[in-house]
């Protein structure tokens, strides 16, 4: 069996990074971000990057650190959030942005992993989302054509993995990480726990190991909450 286990996040990314590449980065908001791999991309100093991600982190965290370092040229996202740096760079013309409806972004990534170059969706018809894209009618309704998304590298964060690369994600981290794991030419997974081969119930595996090239134990697990809303407990 090919050894997919790496000792450090830096070693897991060695030889994979280059200027101008496209990277998919998992996570939903700040949940499921590859917290250990993102700093290594920053420290590698690669530039002119295109990132495909639900969002671009929050102040001081996640992909924000690559924005602050001037390494990202373009974002393909569905949520800008309250990232003030993202907003300012875009308004100043220093950051390209391809904004997608969230379900469309997920489906474009899934299509990339499944080898489907294009599909039609009703989402975005008659809005700026559809500008410049073919629109066709099916059963009396207009649908806009969207194209797949693929990347040179996918970096994802999972809860558990075995040495073959079978991945299990936990809760909200399951939103974008599994489809991104299928759509990268190379996929690197950082995981919280590496279990022995055979320890994972096959019915519980979210991403089969065939899609995963490298595995590393995560070294950063802050799991920040962007906004915490609570209410007082009743008496």
From TrEMBL:
Statement: the UniProt record of this protein carries the keyword RNA-binding: no
InterPro entries membership: 3-oxoacid_CoA-transf_A, CoA_trans_fam_I, NagB/RpiA_transferase-like
Keyword set, alphabetical order: Transferase
Residues annotated as signal peptide: none
SUPFAM superfamilies: NagB/RpiA/CoA transferase-like (SSF100950)
GO molecular function: CoA-transferase activity
Gene3D superfamilies named among the record's database cross-references: Glutaconate Coenzyme A-transferase (3.40.1080.10)
Domain of life: Bacteria
Name of the protein in question: CoA transferase subunit A
Organism name: Sphingobium nicotianae
